Amino acid sequence: MSLAGEANRSARGVVCGIYPITPQTEIVEYVARFPFSKGRVIPVESEHSAMGVCIGAALNGARAFTASSSNGLAYMAENVMVAAFYRLPIVMAAVNRTLGPPWNIWADQGDTLMFRDFAWVQLYCDSNQDVADTTLLAFRLAEDPRILLPVMVCMDAFIVSHTSMEIELATQEQVDRFLPPCDVPQRLDSAHPVTIGGMAFPQDTLSQRLDLDEALRRVPGALEEHRAQFREIFGREVSGAVESHHCEDADRILIASGTVASTLRSVVEEWRLRGERVGMIRIKMFRPFPREEVRALCSGSKKVGVLDRNYGADVGGIFCHEVRAALQGQAGVGERAPLVQSYLTGVGGGDVVPDTVQEVLEELSRRSAAGDPVWKGIET
To answer: Domain locations in the chain?
Structure first.
């Protein structure tokens, strides 16, 4: 993030509104120490204010960044909504941590997924390299004049946020080439004062919501364009909306996001060596949801199991809910849509180990019909 902020030094600089909460504190501590040529890091009294600082900065044309987790995100909720409805290209590092009470500091995606209807682009990373590269991609995507929407870069608490590994870091010269100066077209201008966020009639609100929806629909195409530019400048790939393995002939497919997908990958490879026709999909971009990609990848499968590190009241796993909606009515004449089964695992931060995935695959293989969500990791 710091290199992205420095890359805007020839424009209106960078502003970071920051407030600490475990396990994202080290992120804002690092940002606070960075010697930006042009910009300010502003410690505030709450998460609500941290996003408020970013809103004010973006409305004045600065590149804006913050970070948060869990109940801090919940306290920020009002301004999270405002940032999207103002069409401000703010980037937030969201370290996925269980919402309390009871208080829990371990990984769970419920904190960011509660904002799934707030018109933020949501990208779920599975490694340190993915976080570093996706953060740069997020600024390019958010500031794209066709998009102008805020972006969350999400990562599992501690599993990613506090794990060290070797990665390829960008240079300032590369980031300067990748990120053009931030241009917020609706930024405030004292020579032409306007009211921001005033009273609107119903038809005006309807039109604004349609604009948001159309911008979200442009995200997948823009994402692919910026991935190609990333590859050209940095010489490596950054993952896109979905990542698939062995789905071409798979009769059973497992779907997950974040670090759970890394565990799936190894188990799926093991089953393929045994001659089992299994595949996997990692969903990185949750909003906008990659419906077309999921439909295409699951079109030949008979059974789909979705592993969710989150819980939606009365719907089970939230990713599973979206997968079911995407596949609804997609079977052709004389065909059957795949069975879609929800598995809740790692909820509240529990470990998702290869044995857990083995159990899921065995359970999915035995199934003849979908049923209620299956909870894994409950001690009896």
So the answer is: 2-234, 242-375
Alpha-carbon distance values, 270 to 130, 274, 276, 354 (Å): 24, 7, 9, 10
Q: Which two tokens stand for residue 295?
A: 């439909």
270-300 confidence digits (pLDDT tens): 999 999 999 999 999 999 999 999 999 999 9
As a whole number of angstroms, the distance between CA 16 and CA 64 comes to: 6
Contacts of 48 (CB under 8 A, 6+ apart): 75, 76, 78, 79
Q: Decide whether 2-234 matches 242-375 in CATH topology.
A: yes
CATH ID of 242-375, from 3.30.420.40, 3.40.50.920, 3.40.1370.10, 3.90.1150.10: 3.40.50.920
Stretch among 134-148, 180-194, 332-346 having the lowest mean pLDDT: 332-346
CB 224 within 8 A of CB 292: no
Both structure tokens of 93: 């590092």
Q: What is the separation of C-alpha 47 from the centre of its chain, rounded to a whole number of angstroms?
A: 19
Residue 5 in this model has a pLDDT that exceeds 90: yes
Mean pLDDT of the chain: 95
| Distance in angstroms (rounded) separating the CA atoms of residues 362 and 336 | 22
CATH numeric code, 2-234: 3.40.50.970
**Do strands 14-18 and 278-283 pair parallel, antiparallel, or not at all (unpaired)?**
unpaired
Distances (CA, A) of 147 to 88, 185, 212: 10, 12, 9
Sign of CA dihedral 322, 263, 244, 279: negative
Label the pairing between strands 39-43 and 14-18.
parallel
In percent, the amount of the chain with pLDDT more than 70 equals 98
Q: Could you say which DSSP state residue 190 is in? A: T
Concatenate the DSSP letters of all residues of 162-177 into one string: T-----PPPPHHHHHH
Name the nearest CA neighbour of 258 among 343, 154, 113, 374: 154
Beta strands in the chain (DSSP E): 14-18, 39-43, 63-68, 91-96, 121-124, 151-156, 242-245, 252-256, 278-283, 285-287, 303-308, 339-344, 374-375
